[in-house]
Design brief:
Distance between the termini: 18 Å
Largest sheet: none
Shape: elongated
Structural class: mainly alpha
Oligomer: single chain
Length: 127
Protein backbone atom coordinates (compact mmCIF):
# COMPACT_ATOMS: atom_id res chain seq x y z
CA UNK A 1 0.00 0.00 0.00
CA UNK A 2 2.85 2.38 -0.83
CA UNK A 3 0.54 4.43 -3.08
CA UNK A 4 -2.35 4.83 -0.65
CA UNK A 5 -2.37 8.65 -0.90
CA UNK A 6 -2.48 8.46 -4.71
CA UNK A 7 -5.26 5.89 -4.57
CA UNK A 8 -7.31 8.02 -2.18
CA UNK A 9 -6.98 11.11 -4.37
CA UNK A 10 -7.82 9.10 -7.49
CA UNK A 11 -10.95 7.78 -5.73
CA UNK A 12 -11.90 11.35 -4.77
CA UNK A 13 -11.53 12.51 -8.38
CA UNK A 14 -13.32 9.44 -9.78
CA UNK A 15 -16.31 9.94 -7.48
CA UNK A 16 -16.39 13.66 -8.23
CA UNK A 17 -16.32 13.33 -12.01
CA UNK A 18 -18.44 10.20 -12.43
CA UNK A 19 -21.12 11.63 -10.12
CA UNK A 20 -21.03 14.95 -11.96
CA UNK A 21 -21.23 13.22 -15.34
CA UNK A 22 -24.15 11.11 -14.16
CA UNK A 23 -26.02 14.21 -13.00
CA UNK A 24 -25.36 15.95 -16.31
CA UNK A 25 -26.81 13.01 -18.24
CA UNK A 26 -29.81 12.46 -15.96
CA UNK A 27 -30.70 16.17 -15.64
CA UNK A 28 -29.46 17.47 -18.98
CA UNK A 29 -32.25 19.97 -19.67
CA UNK A 30 -32.16 21.37 -16.13
CA UNK A 31 -28.40 21.85 -16.41
CA UNK A 32 -28.66 23.53 -19.80
CA UNK A 33 -31.39 25.88 -18.55
CA UNK A 34 -29.42 26.86 -15.45
CA UNK A 35 -26.14 27.27 -17.36
CA UNK A 36 -27.75 29.40 -20.08
CA UNK A 37 -28.73 31.85 -17.37
CA UNK A 38 -25.33 31.53 -15.66
CA UNK A 39 -23.49 32.37 -18.90
CA UNK A 40 -26.09 34.80 -20.32
CA UNK A 41 -23.68 37.75 -20.20
CA UNK A 42 -20.67 35.92 -21.62
CA UNK A 43 -19.53 34.84 -25.05
CA UNK A 44 -20.55 31.26 -24.14
CA UNK A 45 -24.24 32.19 -24.00
CA UNK A 46 -25.01 30.66 -27.42
CA UNK A 47 -22.79 27.61 -26.95
CA UNK A 48 -23.93 26.22 -23.59
CA UNK A 49 -25.16 22.78 -24.79
CA UNK A 50 -21.96 22.15 -26.77
CA UNK A 51 -19.74 23.36 -23.92
CA UNK A 52 -21.67 21.19 -21.46
CA UNK A 53 -21.28 18.17 -23.74
CA UNK A 54 -17.51 18.74 -23.98
CA UNK A 55 -17.32 19.05 -20.21
CA UNK A 56 -19.36 15.86 -19.79
CA UNK A 57 -17.00 13.92 -22.06
CA UNK A 58 -13.93 15.19 -20.21
CA UNK A 59 -15.48 14.41 -16.83
CA UNK A 60 -16.27 10.85 -17.86
CA UNK A 61 -12.81 10.31 -19.34
CA UNK A 62 -11.24 11.72 -16.17
CA UNK A 63 -13.37 9.59 -13.87
CA UNK A 64 -12.82 6.38 -15.81
CA UNK A 65 -9.06 6.93 -16.02
CA UNK A 66 -8.97 7.53 -12.26
CA UNK A 67 -10.84 4.27 -11.58
CA UNK A 68 -8.56 2.31 -13.91
CA UNK A 69 -5.58 4.07 -12.33
CA UNK A 70 -6.64 2.88 -8.86
CA UNK A 71 -6.99 -0.66 -10.11
CA UNK A 72 -3.61 -0.50 -11.86
CA UNK A 73 -1.91 0.81 -8.71
CA UNK A 74 -3.46 -1.95 -6.62
CA UNK A 75 -2.77 -4.78 -9.09
CA UNK A 76 0.74 -4.11 -10.38
CA UNK A 77 1.85 -0.77 -8.94
CA UNK A 78 1.50 0.79 -12.41
CA UNK A 79 1.12 4.53 -12.59
CA UNK A 80 0.20 5.24 -16.20
CA UNK A 81 -3.61 5.37 -16.00
CA UNK A 82 -3.59 7.19 -12.67
CA UNK A 83 -1.26 9.81 -14.11
CA UNK A 84 -3.49 10.28 -17.14
CA UNK A 85 -6.52 10.43 -14.84
CA UNK A 86 -4.85 13.19 -12.84
CA UNK A 87 -3.86 15.09 -15.98
CA UNK A 88 -7.34 14.86 -17.49
CA UNK A 89 -8.81 15.90 -14.13
CA UNK A 90 -6.61 19.00 -14.12
CA UNK A 91 -7.63 19.86 -17.69
CA UNK A 92 -11.31 19.39 -16.83
CA UNK A 93 -11.01 21.56 -13.74
CA UNK A 94 -9.18 24.28 -15.68
CA UNK A 95 -12.05 24.28 -18.19
CA UNK A 96 -14.52 24.66 -15.33
CA UNK A 97 -12.41 27.39 -13.75
CA UNK A 98 -12.28 29.30 -17.03
CA UNK A 99 -16.08 29.15 -17.29
CA UNK A 100 -16.61 30.33 -13.73
CA UNK A 101 -14.17 33.21 -14.16
CA UNK A 102 -15.82 34.14 -17.46
CA UNK A 103 -19.21 34.24 -15.71
CA UNK A 104 -17.63 36.26 -12.89
CA UNK A 105 -18.64 33.56 -10.38
CA UNK A 106 -15.61 33.94 -8.15
CA UNK A 107 -16.99 31.76 -5.34
CA UNK A 108 -17.56 28.97 -7.84
CA UNK A 109 -14.05 29.43 -9.17
CA UNK A 110 -12.65 29.23 -5.65
CA UNK A 111 -14.49 25.95 -5.09
CA UNK A 112 -12.90 24.44 -8.19
CA UNK A 113 -9.43 25.23 -6.81
CA UNK A 114 -10.24 22.99 -3.83
CA UNK A 115 -10.44 20.05 -6.28
CA UNK A 116 -7.53 21.25 -8.40
CA UNK A 117 -4.97 21.05 -5.58
CA UNK A 118 -5.33 17.28 -4.98
CA UNK A 119 -5.48 16.69 -8.74
CA UNK A 120 -2.11 18.40 -9.16
CA UNK A 121 -0.76 16.46 -6.18
CA UNK A 122 -1.67 13.13 -7.76
CA UNK A 123 -0.04 14.19 -11.04
CA UNK A 124 3.12 15.06 -9.12
CA UNK A 125 3.11 11.80 -7.13
CA UNK A 126 2.52 9.59 -10.15
CA UNK A 127 4.85 11.32 -12.61
Amino acid sequence: MFNIASILVLVLLAVTFIQSGYEKVMYWSDNVTWLKEHFSKTRLKNHVPLALFHLLVLELISGILCVVGCIQLLVNNGRTFGLYGGIFSCITLIMMLFGQRLAKDYDGARTIIIYFIPAVMVVYWLS
